[in-house]
Backbone:
C-alpha cells in the first residue's frame, strides 16, 4: 500500500492532494521536485518519464502512476473511501466537483508558474503586468466562488454542506496563492471564513506548505 507523492512545498496543486491524504490519514513518501532549481526539476527526464506534462503533483501507488491533482484526489477517494470527501447524491457530488474544477481548471492554470514565466520571458511583460494578470484572474474566479459558497455551505465553515469535501481541498491552496499574490481577501468574506476554519484543522495544518519537508527553514 505504498504511496509516493511527487510534490513541491509551494505547489497549490500538490497542496490539494496533501490535504486529501491527510484527511484520509494515509501515510506517504514525499519526493520533492523543486520547481525553480536548475530550470525546474519537474522538467528532468526522470520526472517526465512519470508525468510527461512536467507538472507536480504525481502520485505513485504500488507501481501505478497518476498525475493531475483532481484525478489523484478522486483515485484516493475511490481506493480509500473513508472519510468521504464527496457527498452521497449525484447532484451534490456534481456541485462539489464544479466548485473544485472552477479552481483547478479556471483559476489556477492561468496563474501557474510556466504561464507567468511565458508572460515575462516569452511576451516581454514586466512584473507589474504579470501581477495584474495574476490578480485579475484570481479575483474573477474567487468572486464566483464566493457566491457558490453562499449558496451551498451549510455552516459557513465549508464550501459545501457541513463537512470537508474536495472543494475545500481546492479552496485553501487557492487562497494561499491569492495571499502570495498580494490579494486582499476582504471582498470574499465567506471564502476567508471557510479558509480560517479549515486551516486550523489538523489535516489541513499538516498539508500546509510551511510544514513540508522541502520547505526552506523559516518559510512562512
Ligand atoms: N492541472 C494540474 C496543474 C499542475 C500544475 O500546474 N502544477 C504546478 C505547480 S502548482 C507546476 O508543476 N508548475 C510547474 C511549471 O509551471 O513549470 C493539476 O491539477 O495537477
Residues:
Amino acid at each position: 500500500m505504498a504511496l509516493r507523492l511527487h510534490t513541491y512545498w509551494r505547489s497549490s496543486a500538490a497542496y490539494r492532494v496533501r490535504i486529501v491524504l491527510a484527511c484520509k490519514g494515509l501515510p506517504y513518501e514525499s519526493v520533492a521536485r523543486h520547481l525553480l532549481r536548475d530550470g525546474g526539476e519537474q522538467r528532468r527526464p526522470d520526472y517526465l518519464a512519470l508525468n510527461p506534462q512536467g507538472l507536480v503533483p504525481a502520485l505513485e501507488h504500488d507501481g501505478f502512476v497518476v498525475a493531475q491533482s483532481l484525478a489523484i484526489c478522486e483515485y484516493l477517494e475511490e481506493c480509500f473511501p473513508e472519510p468521504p470527501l464527496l457527498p452521497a447524491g449525484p447532484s451534490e457530488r456534481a456541485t462539489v466537483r464544479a466548485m473544485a474544477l472552477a479552481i483547478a481548471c479556471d483559476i489556477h492554470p492561468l496563474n501557474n508558474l510556466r504561464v507567468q514565466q511565458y508572460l515575462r520571458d516569452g511576451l516581454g511583460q514586466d512584473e507589474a503586468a504579470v501581477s495584474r494578470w495574476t490578480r485579475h484572474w484570481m479575483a474573477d474566479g474567487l468572486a464566483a466562488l464566493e457566491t457558490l459558497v453562499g449558496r451551498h455551505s451549510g455552516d459557513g465553515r465549508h464550501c459545501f454542506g457541513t463537512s470537508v469535501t474536495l472543494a475545500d481541498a481546492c479552496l485553501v491552496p487557492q487562497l494561499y496563492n491569492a495571499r502570495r499574490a498580494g490579494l486582499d481577501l476582504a471582498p470574499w468574506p465567506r471564502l476567508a471564513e471557510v479558509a480560517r476554519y479549515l486551516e486550523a484543522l489538523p489535516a489541513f495544518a499538516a498539508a500546509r506548505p510551511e510544514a513540508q519537508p522541502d520547505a526552506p527553514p523559516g518559510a512562512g
Summary: The first helix runs from residue 12 to 23.
